[in-house]
Amino acid sequence: MNLTELSIEEFLAETASSSPAPGGGSVAALAGALSAALASMVAKLTDGEKYADVSAEMKEIAQRAEKLKDGLCACIRKDTDSFSQYMAALRLPKESEEERAVRREAMQKGLKTAATVPLETAELALEIFGLSEAVVRRGNKNALSDGLVSAILAKAAVYGALLNVKINLGGIKDEKFVADVTARAEEMRRLAACREREILHMAELSAEFE
What we know:
Blueprint: H1 8-16, H2 24-45, H3 55-90, H4 97-138, H5 144-169, H6 175-201
Helix pairs in contact: 2-3, 2-4, 2-5, 3-4, 4-5, 4-6, 5-6
């Protein structure tokens, strides 16, 4: 099933079903894609003579936002695929020691993939903050709230993705991999919190949400 080809109602129904996928990782990627889409929208609405001095910048922002949106859409699919990969490893035979060794290796590979995909989601979502900030600062003032929602969703995408990173790290035996990813994840978490707070602080409209 290609999740990104589903209607909104179909995606929600699939998420709400008893199937474990799509789960939090795919939903975090969707939040990031929506964040990027909003940044693109505000940039495209920032046109005309009133915004002539930022027209070139907004065109570039729209292009970058579209690219990030597409990347995050891909992560929606990748996250579910990585879960399927791990589940396939669990179903491998385990009668002999050789089979158990093959199964353990496949499970470890699956867990690493399940951790690195949401890490990619978080990294892409972090890039949106620069675009959100630009459209909040210099974008169409009538779309200010949309720029702020973009920043809020970017943080949700980062946090949601990193929670999925963390839960998958728990089963990984490679200590160096776990340490490296944990350090990267913590830095991204800190940065996302800081960037969202900074962007919300720019607008009086969002003062009570800081």
